[in-house]
Amino acid sequence: MFALLPFAAAAATMGTLAFTTRSSQSRAAIVVAPLTVTSKPAGWRAPGVAVTVGGFAGSGARVLLRADGRVVASTRAGSLGRYSLRFAPRSSGRLRLVVQSAGAFRPVGTLVVRPVSLDAVGDVTFGEGVGPAIAAHGGAYPWAFVGSTLRRADITVGNLETAVSTRGIAAVKEFTFRGPPAALVPMRTVAGFDVLTLANNHTVDFGRDALVDTVKAVHAAGIQTIGAGANEAQARRAAIVEAGGLRVALLGYSDVNPYGFNATSTSPGTAKADVDAITADVHAALRRADIAVCFFHWGVELHPAPNSRQQQFAAACLNAGAKVVLGAHPHVLGGVATPAPHSLVAWTLGNFVFPSGSVTARTAILHVALGADGVRGYRLLPVRIDGFRPRLAPAAQQG
Questions:
Q1: Percent residues over pLDDT 90 in the chain
Q2: Any idea what the Cα angle at residue 252 is, between residues 275 and 247, rounded to 5°?
Q3: Which of 136, 159, 218, 329 is most solvent-facing, going by the fewest CB within 10 Å?
Q4: Architecture of the domain spanning 116-398
């Protein structure tokens, strides 16, 4: 029978059969190729932070990502079957993620979505009676009543208003503060501080060399610094902390500047509050981060309400794209404003670890919830300072 076919016709028939077989195999590969998940988000994510799920499916196959059954992303696998799916959950909660392709389903796991918690406090000093008490009772002594609360936050920041050095001569001014490097380690291990601003009117109390020592000692304790450095560029550089996939940049500035305290291009010091510098710094920080936070030393002692200079600097931060503005120096707790959606200004956080009495003993921990779009909410946890040790008020302990 086959011998009756002309050679050319037989060849054509064989070619057609071969083509059909390859095509069938290709179509079958799309359907039966195993669906796999090789990469998925680890841990938790802040609202608005994108997550990526990747793996392999059939060549050119449609791949879907479902969150609690709802399709949240789709793509087509490449010629080799590789796919990558990306989506940004907007609301807090627990999402069960599943990848689907050609009737096959593969579980990815449960993604926890919640805001990043930032806790901010005011003035911390090792001067006056604080240093001797630490020498007698240990570095954890100031944090006995609040350390566990601060440590639970994803990011904790405060104002370190003291030199930390054994070098230098006291500046000619009414009050000068300094303490030992050993006092810093518990700020990290017991109270969980991630960043300390050094932009204030006391970190250079014992000279520029002592300031450099302070920066080094804080870093050695595992804490980042803002607002001071070996030169102006370092003093103005942001610290970046990442939590839940959200990159938060923090910057520090002082508007209370004793003579010789400000950094220059060639000498150590603090970052001076200046509208043009603030604008440039926030823009630069937001090229490296998702959210910017500015911490100021400003205002008038014992005056909780902001003056025109504070309002000017806060506006510069917000207009440049920052979402959170924090303040210290008046030694009393002030109000919190929300001048625009997803933004916040805390005019003065008051004292924290600081010898206090009467009106200066009432303070708070500012707890801010952050997403990729900025502030998702905030609350003030009431604190009362006992001598110089902060203690959560009963209402805050219950909450």
A1: 87
A2: 105
A3: 136
A4: 4-Layer Sandwich (3.60)
